[in-house]
């Protein structure tokens, strides 16, 4: 069940949390260039960033701490970590995608180990 996205925008849908269905603005980074840039240089994040394919991240040259959720091929969360700037995250062998957001955001959305998320895409960015 391989998923392939293009760089662009969409919505992260988190179901089953205490708040019911949560919809979060999502930026999709699927190209090498977009994944390499990621959240570097940003002061804040509006929603979440999906890196795909990816199984690890780093926070070198980042200005803010971030939440990182590792997703398997079925978009099930296999690990969630909060990473301060200047850290190297360990690769997750089963991870195929990584979600990034401002520190503390994912707990509020209900993103936790075992949760399943969905990705709804919109038009590719230009």
Structure, briefly:
The protein has about 130 residues and is mainly β.
Structural commentary:
- This protein is mainly beta.
- The protein is 9% helix and 40% strand.
- It has 2 helices and 7 strands.
- The chain has a 7-stranded mixed sheet.
- The relative contact order is 0.29.
Multimerization status: single chain
Q: Supply the helix-strand structural class.
A: mainly beta
**CA radius of gyration:** 13 Å
- The coarse silhouette is globular
The main pleated sheet reads as:
7 strands, mixed
Number of helices: 2
Give the helix proportion (percent range).
under 10%
- Give the rounded overall mean pLDDT: 90
Beta-strand residue percentage: 35-45%
* Uncertain residue ranges: none
**Strand line-up across the major sheet:** 5-4-6-3-2-1-7
Number of DSSP strand runs: 7
> How are helices and strands ordered from N to C?
EEHEEEEHE
Q: Roughly how many Å apart are the termini?
A: 28 Å
What attributes characterize this protein structure?
single chain, globular, 7 strands, 7-stranded mixed sheet, 126 residues, 40% strand, mainly beta
Would you spell out the secondary-structure blueprint of this structure?
Blueprint: E1 8-17, E2 20-29, H1 32-37, E3 48-51, E4 66-71, E5 77-83, E6 97-102, H2 105-109, E7 117-124
Parallel strand pairs: 2-3
Antiparallel strand pairs: 1-2, 1-7, 3-6, 4-5, 4-6
């Amino acid at each position: 069940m391989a998923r392939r996205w293009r760089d662009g925008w969409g919505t992260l849908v988190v179901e089953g949390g205490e708040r019911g269905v949560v919809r979060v603005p999502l930026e999709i980074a699927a190209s090498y260039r977009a994944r390499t840039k990621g959240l570097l240089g940003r002061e804040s994040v509006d929603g979440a960033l999906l890196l795909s394919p990816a199984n690890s991240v780093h926070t070198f040259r980042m200005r803010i701490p971030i939440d990182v959720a590792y997703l398997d091929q079925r978009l099930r969360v296999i690990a969630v970590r909060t990473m301060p700037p200047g850290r190297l995250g360990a690769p997750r062998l089963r991870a195929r995608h990584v979600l990034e957001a401002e520190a503390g955001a994912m707990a509020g959305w209900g993103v936790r180990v075992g949760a399943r998320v969905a990705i709804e895409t919109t038009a590719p960015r230009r």
